[in-house]
Specification:
33% helix; EC 2.3.3.10; alpha+beta; Thiolase-like; HMG_CoA_synt_C_dom; binds coenzyme A; Hydroxymethylglutaryl-CoA synthase; 2 domains; Peroxisomal Thiolase, Chain A, domain 1; 9-stranded mixed beta sheet; single chain; 3-stranded mixed beta sheet
Amino acid sequence: MKVGIDKLRFASAHQYVDMVELARARHAAPDKYTIGIGQTQMAVIPPSQDIVTLAANAAAPMLTATDLAAIDLLIVGTESGIDNSKASAIYVAHLLGLSSRCRTIEMKEACYAATAGIQLAQAHVRMHPDKKALVIGADIARYGLNTPGEPTQGGGAMAMLISADPQVLALSTESAVLSQDVMDFWRPLYHTTALVDGKYSSNIYIDYFQDVFQEYLIKTQTPAADLAALVFHLPYTKMGLKALRSVLPQVTETQQRDWLRHFEYSRKLNRRVGNLYTGSLYLSLLSLLLTDPNLRPGDQLGLFSYGSGAEGEFYTGTLQPDYQRGLDLGLPQRLQRRQRVDVTTYERAFNGQLAWVADDQQTDWQSDPHRFVLTGQQNEQRQYLDRQA
Ligand code: COA
């Protein structure tokens, strides 16, 4: 039985900051940001969006009444939690109108959790093929203003519907996992921005990729040449390129050119959004599927997921005949329609997120065009609005 990704859809903010402008404001060479780090634009998440609204905005438009009735598992992967006890998935399930018989949980392991969610969802659907599972990776990447990590911020949510006979990608049942205690990136409960050893985390990322890539090939006896393209978690797009380059000597020059060409398509949309932690690998997958004219049904794609701390996984999926039907076809136009804001506006949005205090608070939600918005906090409870309700 084939099980895998039936549909996938992305949501982020309606605003972005241009990376050349940000580089100038930080007295950095623009080429460092656009070439050295590989980012051209960065999503600016307004205070009226959090992981709940991003997740609901990503998923709602792609779900039919049939999907809503069949979903009995919702997993939100995130490292941008809004509550230490209650799962963001419960708010999301409510906003989406999912059944109260749906199991709803939040999962955490830095940028890796959405992949763990997909693997659990895949196992669940294999046991219950008439059911569907919704997995959403939702995050706001925050390193802090004027920090080395600042140009690798961003945010958004990737929603993926996992089902039997999927339209987009049939997933492998085998995968290779590596999990070890590494202090490359973490965020204690009292911090709103990540603590990171950036160079160290980039090195660990490559070590993990090489390890799980080789492990997968050996374990499944798959020749590297069987993989049409490799898709990476992209905290910044140069990161994936570095990892890809590290395994190029394993294949012929023709295949090296093919992998590099596919990679350029796989980073197109991520270059314009920035990091979205858990959802980043899947935005890259969507970017590849939406923009690459050289893919064919039957192609086997390799997926590398990495979460600092650290956990990595490599697995594969086979492209299905009608894969275009399950894609978020309007995404390139939505990104094009976003509003460019200046660095001051970006900094105000960054500093204006709801404070972690008990006071009642309000956001400027009226200027946010999305269907689901966070209007503020009252009596220590977040207030969400569905404009279509
Ligand atoms: N033109 C072109 N490239 C330039 C340049 C210029 N004028 N100036 C610098 N660069 C290149 C550097 O050579 C480097 O490329 P390389 O890594 O291929 O050698 C790149 O731009 C970044 O420069 P660097 O000096 O290393 O940047 P930095 O010290 O400011 O930090 C990160 C970069 C990625 C480490 C930092 O943004 C960070 O900590 N990010 C968050 C952590 C992260 O995402 N980790 C990934 C694993 S999850």
